[in-house]
Every structure is written in C-alpha cells, then in structure tokens.
Amino acid sequence: MSIGPWQIILILVIVLIIFGAGKLPRVAGDLAKGIKNFKKGMTEEDKPESAEGEKTEVLESTSNDDRVEKKDKAAQG
C-alpha cells in the first residue's frame, strides 16, 4: 500500500488546519534546523567545541527566540 496524491493532500490540509497558515513557515524552519543539527551531529566525531562557539550559538538562539515571541505577541493583538 503506497501513499497516493489524495492522501498527501489530506495530510497537508490537516497540517494547515492544526498549525494555521501564519505558523507554517516557523514550523518548517524549526524542522529544517532540527534536521540540520541532526545531520551535523551524525557527521561530527566526538570533537570538543570551544567555549566561545557555544556562547555565540546560545546568544543567537536567544535573540531569535525573543524576535519570535515579539511577533507572536504582535499577531495576537
């Protein structure tokens, strides 16, 4: 049994209903980041990272989270 075009359309409609059109780009971006990090983790051998690299990564993710929260608050009114 394979997935046909009607099943794919039905799945996409359900996803659109659950997440809404406004959040789909963010959900897709988060999914892409997760896949990228997974692939990066699979290719890296147990290499120690520098402390500076970790700090920069944390700061970038924090500022990105702040922007997303502001956008959500603005959308809610």
Notes on the structure:
The protein has 77 residues and is an all-alpha fold. Helix content is 79%, strand content 0%. It is built from three helices and no strands. The longest helix has 26 residues, at 51-76. The model has no long low-confidence stretch (mean pLDDT 76).
Layout: helices, strands, pairs:
Blueprint: H1 5-19, H2 24-43, H3 51-76
Give keywords.
single chain, 77 residues
How many extended strands?
Answer: 0
Task: Kindly report the average pLDDT value.
Answer: 76
Q: Classify the oligomer.
A: single chain
One letter per element, helices H and strands E, the order comes to HHH
Major sheet size, sense and barrel closure? none
Q: Give the proportion of residues in helices.
A: over 70%
In percent terms, what proportion of residues is strand? under 5%
Q: So how many helices?
A: 3
Overall shape: it is: flat
Compute the separation of the termini in Å: 46 Å
Radius of gyration based on Cα positions: 18 Å
Structural class: mainly alpha
